[in-house]
User: Fold these one by one.
Assistant:
Number 1:
Amino acid sequence: MKKYLFITFSIITFLSCSSSKESRNATVIIDPNPTSEMARLMREMTIELDEIKIRLEKNETLENNLLDFALIHEAEVTDISFNKPHIMPMSKAFHYVVNEFNKEPNIINYNSIINNCVSCHQLSCQGPLMKINKLTIKN
Ligand code: HEC
């Protein structure tokens, strides 16, 4: 039972931001909080963008205004250490490119959304970067 719990915990730690170098020496979260609003938003975005990626790769024509994400900088975070000064400007830049994609849903605009995910994560939390990089459409 103990072993099972340990494995589960390691997986969660690996997927979430806690595995990033920056936060490793910060606070040790012994009893992790329930998933934050921000983490939930991030997971939803990942799933939706993955679906869009598949459709774009099949050369489907996408409708306008497919994406309607809550504002990142207004979401509650798991740990206050995530509340850094770059979050607000990068969140605004992110929502700008999402809007461009909504107006013109094509591969170029899709990839610029993913580039914005990457930029913020390089500064915020590097744990999910591998997962995010997989969302990029290569041609
Ligand atoms: C403005 C900065 C910023 C942008 C842009 C951003 N993220 Fe995040 N992301 C964060 C922060 C901060 C966290 C940690 C949130 C928390 O744990 O409360 C996070 C967490 C995550 C997680 C881990 C969630 C979990 O289960 O704990 C994933 C996956 C993720 N982001 C994917 C993405 C994807 C995909 C995009 C682009 C569509 C994206 N992020 C855009 C800052 C950002």
Number 2:
Amino acid sequence: MAASLVLLLLAGPTAIARAQSGAAEGQKLAFDRGKGNCLTCHEIRGGDLAGTIGPALKDIKSKYPDRNELVAILNDETMRNPQTMMPPFGRNRILTEQEIDAIVDFLETL
Ligand code: HEC
């Protein structure tokens, strides 16, 4: 967290603005019932009517310091767990690469 903050500060205001708008867009996509629909299965701060099929999404950055792991989970969680209930958002083209990227920005704020 601290290290990436330093990186952001070094990168300047443009990078900070980009990361923030990515996270805001990602939150919208995550909560959108026709897109990520993550709340059906996950409790997420700021979201209503969450299901509990999956674990509550919190402290994500300490659990997954490498954002590529989160991209992989969203792309196709069946790679880690063939029995998972979680849809393979990337593989099934429910979400584009850019949309997954924005959602990962958002997850890293949780
Ligand atoms: C149909 C239910 C379902 C939906 C919809 C769903 N997930 Fe999941 N998710 C799960 C389950 C169940 C797990 C537990 C791990 C497994 O099954 O492999 C999980 C695991 C995760 C993990 C790992 C959490 C951890 O603590 O290790 C992340 C991150 C995640 N989901 C993010 C998302 C995001 C973001 C969305 C929306 C784009 C989403 N999930 C949509 C069911 C779902």
